[in-house]
């Protein structure tokens, strides 16, 4: 499967807006992988599939979580919005034969992050947040940091996300904290 085929494969599963977001995440991930010397091909594939499971029903996602030994069951105690990355990482192999563990992991952790993220995981995590269609408070500074320092940028994304979730009073998944704590150590 080449990149063009990957884009065609995800398109029917996404809304038009989500598909356009996906294309921008892929372009942003390509730029970041040039800048920070990661595999451009893997970054683009992971980006194209990162939201692949976004519009699967809650029931279907629940079934994939329950029947996939690699997925933690504690996800079910958290908001279904957190399920599409982990479920997507299973579906890319089941439905498209993508066996690459690095790509799968970048899809899996794109929403929460985790401790000890690889450059590829960091790139997808950051690209999803800074793609040109996004408009979050503080995004200009984060985009500027993305010109220079991938880990520091990911730290800013993680910190912003936690601040946003705290402000809304939302529950925060453990990996979200593990990402923040680990990135804090890595920038100091
Ligand atoms: O799928 P996208 O909209 O492109 O973006 P995403 O997958 O990064 O994030 C989806 C949502 O998940 C976003 O509104 C932030 C939220 N989120 C991230 N970490 C956590 C979280 N929500 C909860 N409740 N807990 C988290 O730890
Ligand atoms: Fe997502
Ligand atoms: Fe994200
Ligand atoms: Fe996304």
Automatic annotation (TrEMBL):
Provide the E.C. number(s) assigned to this enzyme: 3.6.1.41
Q: Which domain of life is it from?
A: Bacteria
Q: Which reaction does it catalyse?
A: P(1),P(4)-bis(5'-adenosyl) tetraphosphate + H2O = 2 ADP + 2 H(+)
Work out whether the entry's keyword set contains Nucleotide-binding.
yes
- Gene Ontology terms for molecular function: bis(5'-nucleosyl)-tetraphosphatase (symmetrical) activity
Show the InterPro entries listed in the entry: Diverse_Catalytic_Enzymes, HD/PDEase_dom, HD_domain, YqeK
Keyword vocabulary terms for this entry: Hydrolase, Iron, Metal-binding, Nucleotide-binding
Q: Which residues form a coiled coil?
A: none
Does the keyword Flavoprotein feature in the UniProt annotation? no
Main enzyme class: hydrolase
Q: Which NCBIfam families match?
A: bis(5'-nucleosyl)-tetraphosphatase (symmetrical) YqeK (TIGR00488)
The UniProt entry, under PANTHER family, shows: BIS(5'-NUCLEOSYL)-TETRAPHOSPHATASE, SYMMETRICAL, SLR1885 PROTEIN
- The molecule here is called bis(5'-nucleosyl)-tetraphosphatase (symmetrical)
């Amino acid at each position: 499967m080449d990149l063009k085929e990957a884009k065609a494969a995800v398109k029917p599963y996404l809304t038009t807006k989500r598909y356009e977001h996906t294309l921008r995440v892929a372009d942003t991930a390509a730029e970041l992988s040039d800048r920070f010397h990661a595999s451009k091909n893997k970054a683009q594939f992971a980006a194209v599939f990162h939201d692949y499971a976004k519009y699967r029903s809650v029931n279907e996602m629940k079934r994939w979580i329950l029947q996939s030994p690699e997925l933690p069951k504690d996800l079910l105690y958290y908001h279904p919005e957190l399920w599409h990355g982990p479920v997507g990482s299973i579906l890319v192999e089941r439905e498209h034969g993508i066996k690459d563990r690095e790509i799968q992991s970048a899809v899996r952790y794109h929403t929460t992050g985790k401790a000890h993220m690889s450059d590829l995981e960091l790139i997808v995590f950051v690209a999803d947040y800074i793609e040109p269609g996004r408009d979050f408070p503080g995004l200009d500074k984060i985009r500027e940091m993305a010109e220079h320092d991938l880990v520091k940028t990911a730290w800013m994304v993680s910190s912003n996300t936690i601040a946003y979730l705290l402000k809304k009073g939302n529950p925060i998944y453990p990996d979200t904290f593990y990402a923040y704590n680990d990135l804090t150590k890595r920038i100091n």
